[in-house]
Amino acid sequence: MKKGSSATKTKAATESEQFRKLQKKLRRQVSWAIRDFNMIEDGDVIMVCVSGGKDSYTLLDILLLLKRIAPISFDIVAVNLDQKQPGYPEDILPNYLNEQGIAHYILEKDTYSIVKSVVPEGKTYCSACSRLRRGSLYGFAKQIGATKIALGHHRDDMLATFFLNLFHGGALKSMPPKLLSDDKQNLLIRPLAYVEEKDIIEYARLKAFPIIPCNLCGSQTNLQRAIINDMLREWDDAHPQRLASIFKAMQNVAPSQLADRELFDFEKLSLDRDDQERLFEGDNIQAGQTDSLAEIGLPVSPETQTFNPKFADKQPKQVSNKGSNQASNKTMKDDGTAQKIPTINPVI
């Protein structure tokens, strides 16, 4: 296809109603994430890590859009690390960034050879590759005075990391939307935290970003992350709201309902009962071995009730025959007929 024809099709796609709605949705979700986690402040210099993949292209594009309309002032610089992979198309990303007039740096470092030399044959490269890349980019952010490092991880990446740690790491953790590096020298932000991957795929298609595949590990098909991603896609197809519910759960953690002794002090839990007595709501209490119960100091004839008065608008009339268990568990209708009161169980 000729370049002119491709540009015409891209222009038409980005002027469509479908694109405008999708861009508005992404802009809104990114804005919410930035607001909720205070990701960008006035005067910030945001270093956007651009790999040439759909996620980082979309991140850069939406942040540039927000920069034009935001009520605060901040600057954006794109940074790419050329890791010297064999066959890597070195010209694609610089050409795109130059055409768009985006301030950028291209860093060159042969991490490919390092990864190949330290990772045993048959093992996955992702962990070693990301550590080397991260170390180089963190140091460069401080060198140029960038106040925040923006990464292109989206909601589905965060969910996949959660399940990887759950299934293989023995930990309930994921990728946080905002993170202070271990050495406290850099703040990392993930503005796509609320964005679904399928929306990014469609946005990248409509924008016709010049995607650069990862040739270093892209051929490693048995990655655990790939397996998790397949699982998430199957869930999303079968149960459209499941992933949204899981992500909401990651934002609604109840430490007292888990088992981490560092997050909640289980040892110091103690009773704090008042004098109000809650009778058993049921038909009857069979007390066996009454002598043994009495020795312990427990009641041998505990009372029952058929309802808790605090759940009733009016106090029902009780049957006068208290000598009968059956009668005591009934109340009177207006016509004098005994009726059963439904049991109301407390929320546990």
Can you describe this structure?
The protein has 348 residues and is α/β, with parallel strands linked by helices. Helix content is 42%, strand content 11%. The chain contains twelve helices and ten strands. It has helices at residues 3-14, 17-36, 54-69, 92-100, 111-118, 126-144, 155-169, 197-207, 224-238, 242-250, 290-296, 325-328, and strands at 45-49, 75-82, 104-108, 148-150, 178-180, 187-189, 280-281, 304-305, 330-332, 338-340. A six-stranded mixed β-sheet has the order 3-2-1-4-6-5, with helices on both faces. A two-stranded parallel sheet has the order 7-8. Strands 9-10 form a two-stranded antiparallel sheet. It is elongated, with a radius of gyration of 31 Å. The protein starts with a helix and ends in an 8-residue tail after the last strand.
How are the secondary structure elements laid out?
Blueprint: H1 3-14, H2 17-36, E1 45-49, H3 54-69, E2 75-82, H4 92-100, E3 104-108, H5 111-118, H6 126-144, E4 148-150, H7 155-169, E5 178-180, E6 187-189, H8 197-207, H9 224-238, H10 242-250, E7 280-281, H11 290-296, E8 304-305, H12 325-328, E9 330-332, E10 338-340
Parallel strand pairs: 1-2, 1-4, 2-3, 4-6, 7-8
Antiparallel strand pairs: 5-6, 9-10
Secondary-structure element string: HHEHEHEHHEHEEHHHEHEHEE
Per DSSP, what share of the residues sits in E-state strands of 2 or more residues? Answer: 5-15%
The shape, in one word, is elongated
Sheet with the most strands: spatial strand order? 3-2-1-4-6-5
Amino- and carboxy-terminal Cα gap: 65 Å
Strand segment count: 10
Mean pLDDT: 85
Task: Please give the count of helices.
Answer: 12
Main sheet characteristics:
6 strands, mixed
Question: What oligomeric state do these chains adopt?
Answer: single chain
Q: Radius of gyration over alpha carbons?
A: 31 Å
The SS-based structural class is: alpha/beta
The stretches of 5 or more residues where confidence is low (pLDDT under 50) are 319-333
Relative helix content: 40-55%
